[in-house]
Structures are given as structure tokens and as C-alpha cells.
Amino acid sequence: MRRQSLDVDQLSEAIRLYETGLSLQAVATRLGVSYNCVRQRFVKEAIPRRPRGGSYTHEEDLFRFSSSSAIS
Predict the structure, then answer these.
(1) Which of 17, 27, 30, 50 sits at a 20 to 30 Å CA gap from 7?
(2) Considering the domain boundaries, does residue 1 fall inside one?
(3) In this structure, are residues 25 and 15 in contact, taking their beta carbons and an 8 Å threshold?
């Protein structure tokens, strides 16, 4: 099986889609390549990725924590 690769235009599109909030898997599906293809290219190009588990900010995480402890 031939190894997949992203060309320059696909990489630009992958970055744009990822910045809109799509997951790496969703970006890969849109571009017709594998998750690993996108992930490895992001690593190679030193493109920052969001933390695992969602695309919320640290401040939102703190709000979630303080809200859940206030409910208890």
C-alpha cells in the first residue's frame, strides 16, 4: 500500500479546517487521507494541536470545574 501524503495545498486546508474546530479525524476524512497522515504532518511542521478531549480553553475548563463543585 502506498503511503499517503499531504501536498502544500492540502496542508493549508487541513490547518484551516482544524482552526475552525474540526478534529484531526474530521480533517482527515474531509481530505480523503488517514488520521495518521494528518497527525504526522502536523508534528513534522510543528503545528500546535489542541489538548485531547475537546477544543475548550483552559478558562472554560476552570469554569466547568468550579461550576460542578458549586452544584454538589
Answers:
(1) 50
(2) no
(3) no
Q: Looking at the 3D structure of the chain, how many domains does it have?
A: 1
DSSP secondary-structure letter at 23? Answer: -
Q: Which residues of 48-64 are buried (b: 16+ CB within 10 A; e: fewer)?
A: eeeeeeeeeeeeeeeee
Q: Report which residue type is found at 27.
A: V
Task: Choose among 37, 21, 26: nearest CA to 11.
Answer: 37
**pLDDT greater than 90 at residue 55:** no
What CATH number is attached to the domain comprising 31?
1.10.10
Domain that holds residue 19: 8-71
Measured CA to CA in angstroms, residue 3 lies from 11, 17, 28, 53, 71 at distances of 16, 22, 14, 28, 51
pLDDT at 66 over 70: no
